[in-house]
């Protein structure tokens, strides 16, 4: 039996024929990176390869790294294999990495979602023999509403609080989720204020030509009374802190796929929970896998054991792979 095209090591997903790793979590010589979130793009590698759209935020987060870039769909020969990066729809610049060797094709999806969000390049199914997938929300209970419905819910909450003189503080990850929400907000309701981590990422994206609504950075000098009816876009870790309490009797919300589960909103000390994720829901995972045509499926993070059993029952050759990827977390800052 031929050696597998990709192997799963204690440093990350490794391609022996190309002598590179994909999203490694320990330092390696050559790292192909699916996107800029902290659990996939880590410091310490000698060389990086990512999409041109992911590069600015990776440099912002990782500093002066040796980073080469490719465009979506561009083919690159590395050792004895051909690689290409294809839209994952997760956050701007996120990619699935296609690896081909002697007619065999594997795809590492990183993190992905299948609903277009108007910010990221939409998910592109890539035909392959083996597909490495996340399953952060790999249970039937996770079913996302159309984005437009969630946007209407967020704007209604904001408008109602603004009319009563209360600020809204909305928690969202600084990379991806925050900018997605920004593009969905009705800016006629009031001003939008931002936490420093969110605004820093906004600046990186604006510099690369991604259009975002006007925002106001919250500083120590910011006076809430000068911004009546504001919506404050904050990192999850800022909710419930003195930074947030400066806005007085504000209404607090949190945007996450985990809001689909009862009790999670209370854990985040939020008045409102908005079900929104940059990861695929149950049907999104299943549809993405079907469209690849793959027969071998490797589940890397999420409800891996349950999802593997489901896939096996559907006739796939499915396995669980242990990784250091975290998916969308309620506890860690901006891992998703």
> How many domains comprise the coordinates?
2
Spatial sequence of strands, sheet with the most strands: 7-8-9-10-11-18-19
The count of strands amounts to 19
CATH C-level category of the largest domain: Alpha Beta
CATH homologous superfamily designation of the largest domain: Ribonuclease Z/Hydroxyacylglutathione hydrolase-like
Q: Judging from the principal axes of the Cα atoms, what is the shape?
A: globular
What are the secondary-structure elements, in order, as H or E?
EEEEEHEEEEEEHEHEHEEHEHEHEHE
Q: What's the N-to-C terminus distance?
A: 37 Å
Oligomer state of the chains in this structure: single chain
Radius of gyration over C-alpha positions, nearest whole angstrom: 20 Å
Which consecutive residue ranges, at least 5 long each, have pLDDT under 50? none
Helical segment count: 8
- Output the CATH topology of the largest domain: Metallo-beta-lactamase, Chain A
Structural class: alpha/beta
Overall pLDDT, averaged?
A: 94
Task: Draw up the topology in text.
Layout: E1 7-8, E2 13-15, E3 20-22, E4 30-32, E5 47-51, H1 55-62, E6 67-70, E7 76-78, E8 81-87, E9 95-101, E10 104-108, E11 130-135, H2 147-163, E12 168-171, H3 177-182, E13 192-194, H4 196-207, E14 216-217, E15 231-234, H5 242-245, E16 251-255, H6 264-267, E17 272-274, H7 282-292, E18 296-302, H8 304-313, E19 317-320
Parallel strand pairs: 3-4, 4-5, 5-6, 10-11, 11-18, 12-15, 12-16, 13-14, 13-15, 16-17, 18-19
Antiparallel strand pairs: 1-2, 2-3, 7-8, 8-9, 9-10
């Amino acid at each position: 039996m031929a050696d597998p095209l990709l192997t799963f090591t204690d440093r990350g997903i490794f391609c022996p024929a190309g002598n590179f790793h994909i999203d490694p979590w320990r330092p390696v010589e050559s790292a192909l990176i699916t996107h800029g979130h902290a659990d996939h793009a880590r410091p310490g590698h000698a060389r990086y390869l990512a999409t041109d759209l992911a590069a600015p935020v990776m440099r912002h987060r990782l500093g002066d790294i040796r980073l080469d870039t490719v465009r979506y769909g561009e083919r690159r020969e590395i050792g004895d294999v051909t690689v290409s990066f294809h839209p994952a729809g997760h956050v701007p610049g996120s990619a699935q990495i296609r690896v081909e060797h002697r007619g065999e094709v594997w795809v590492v999806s990183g993190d992905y979602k299948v609903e277009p969000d108007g910010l990221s390049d939409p998910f592109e199914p890539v035909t392959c023999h083996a597909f490495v997938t996340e399953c952060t929300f790999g249970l039937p209970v996770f079913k996302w509403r159309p984005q437009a419905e969630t946007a209407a819910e967020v704007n209604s909450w904001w408008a109602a609080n603004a009319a009563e003189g209360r600020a809204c503080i909305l928690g969202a990850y600084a990379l991806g989720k925050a900018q997605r929400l920004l593009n969905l907000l009705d800016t006629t309701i009031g001003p939008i204020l931002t936490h420093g981590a969110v605004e820093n990422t906004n600046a990186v994206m604006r510099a690369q030509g991604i259009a975002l609504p006007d925002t106001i950075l919250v500083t120590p000098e910011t006076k809430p009374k000068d911004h009546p009816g504001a919506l404050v876009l904050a990192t999850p870790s800022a909710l419930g802190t003195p930074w947030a309490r400066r806005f007085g009797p504000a209404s607090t919300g949190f945007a996450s796929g985990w809001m689909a589960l009862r009790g999670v909103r209370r854990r985040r000390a939020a008045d409102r929970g908005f079900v929104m994720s940059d990861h695929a829901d149950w049907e999104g995972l299943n549809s993405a896998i079907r469209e690849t045509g793959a027969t071998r499926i490797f589940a890397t993070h999420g409800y891996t054991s349950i999802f593997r059993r489901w896939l096996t029952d559907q006739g796939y050759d499915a396995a669980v792979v242990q990784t250091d990827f975290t998916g969308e977390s309620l506890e860690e800052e901006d891992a998703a």
